[in-house]
What does this fold into?
Amino acid sequence: MFLMKNNKKLFSLIIAFFFFVFVFLLNQNTLTMTSLPEEDVYLVSKVIDGDTIEVIKDNETFKVRYSGIDTPELDSKNKETKCLAEKAKEANENLINNKKVKLEEDTNDKDEYGRLLRYVWLDNILINEYLVENGLARADTFLSGEKYKERIEKAEKEAKEKERGIWSEENCLN
It folds into this structure.
């Protein structure tokens, strides 16, 4: 009888422990997204290129330029640059087109073209960082990008070391 009571207590303690660990881990994984207000959620309606999107909120459309990064330009006359730009746009489309994202403001609200300058979050993925980490963009804080500067620069360093995307000598060569 004594062993059964102790086993029940032990079992209850183990269940309680795992419950608290689960709740703790759940909160850790969603902290980044949930720390942004719900009003910062937008639907991505169009991917313009590797670092520019259109989003919709309350039937209003906004153009958004990613903070802290720069991707190759689609209108480049250089064949390799154009190829890399197309890859960046394709990756961006595959990640976020027609999905809900959260936008996070940094030092500047808008660029010279009136586009919002933002960090773009899909769940717990910072899309700006993801593109740099995969060699589809480079770190660039010219317009804006102080908040996650170190994080994005670290992603760029890793992409260079592993020769991903724009840092690969063989990328887009036929």
Remarks:
- The beta strands are 41-49, 52-57, 60-66, 69-70, 100-110, 116-122, 125-126, 138-139.
- Residues 18-34 have pLDDT under 50 and may be disordered.
- The CA atoms of residues 60 and 104 lie 18 Å apart.
- Residues 40-167 form a domain with the OB fold (Dihydrolipoamide Acetyltransferase, E2P) fold (CATH 2.40.50.90).
